[in-house]
Amino acid sequence: MNGILHGNKLKTAGLIIGIVFAFIILVLSVIMGYTNTSLSTAIDAYTAFNGSNEQLIIKISRVPRALVGMAVGISLGIAGVLMQALTRNPIASPDIFGVNAGAGFFIVFGVTFLGISSIQEFMWIGFLGAAVASGMAYILGSAGKGGLTPVKLTLAGAVIAALFASLTQGMLVTNEKALDEVLFWLAGSVEGRKLSMLTAVLPALFIAWIVSVLLSRQLNAFALGEDVAVSLGQKTVVFKFIAALMVILLAGGSVAIAGPISFIGIVVPHFARYLVGSDHRWIVPFSAIVGGIMLVAADIGARYIIMPEEAPVGVVTALIGTPFFIYIVRKGIFQK
């Protein structure tokens, strides 16, 4: 598959343009919203702080929100690429395969029964939930005649996602305190997030970003089929374990700070392939940039849908991703 950007020079230029555009989106996220601010106000908040309401909103709310949105978008975009390459399933993503739902369930369980409240605790229990959900989906999708197939894995992921979502709702019904604490978070949101929340999970996310880029060459071989990868000398068991671990870090860390945001992991890798083709050495970085841009742009839109109130960003990403998901399924390209 060839993308619209041909040649390494054109792809490099496209990546640079994407980085610049990501920076522009970050700036827009900082200055746009219910409270009118400007670029000069944002700069003054850090160079000539006077304690005004506008500057406080920028420092305490807008900047952390923009950075969290960018980090989560990058993580979910890369996680989608890894999952689609590992399963050779074009609709694979952390939300479709129940990874986000598993992480969310474990976090709600921790809030309800263990009294967890710190982001560090959210992070570790989110990682555990993502790992459990991934393992359950893989085992269930591998059961029966024919072993693991894209369709069986998709159905298994849907079952796991429904199971954990139902269990989560059941806990919230019986615990009003937990409902108040996590309801908005469960819809997927970056509103009200603090920089301390991002810095707590950023080391894990950053490691996963770097390792995913380093795995991109091996992803090309694996995408041709496991037998081909083995014939090329790839240790597929080790490779799959490392790639799956990166998905757990990316999805678990993202859910810990922003809740289970859907459809970024599905849409972004396809858009990256449209731009650069099937070479994962380019798909991974392009998916990172596009994922960050898409989530921050969706968050900006979420501020205006029901102004003066704000919609969770997960609602906006669902509105964007649902038609695309239907398009992919109708094409039937995953039915192999």
UniProtKB/TrEMBL annotation:
UniProt subcellular location: Cell membrane
Cited SUPFAM superfamilies: ABC transporter involved in vitamin B12 uptake, BtuC (SSF81345)
UniProt keyword list: Cell membrane, Membrane, Transmembrane, Transmembrane helix, Transport
Topology versus the membrane: Multi-pass membrane protein
Membrane spanning residue stretches: 12-34, 66-85, 97-116, 122-141, 153-175, 195-216, 228-251, 257-276, 283-305, 311-329
Top-level taxon of origin: Bacteria
Similarity field: Belongs to the binding-protein-dependent transport system permease family. FecCD subfamily.
Protein name: Iron complex transport system permease protein
Organism: Fictibacillus barbaricus
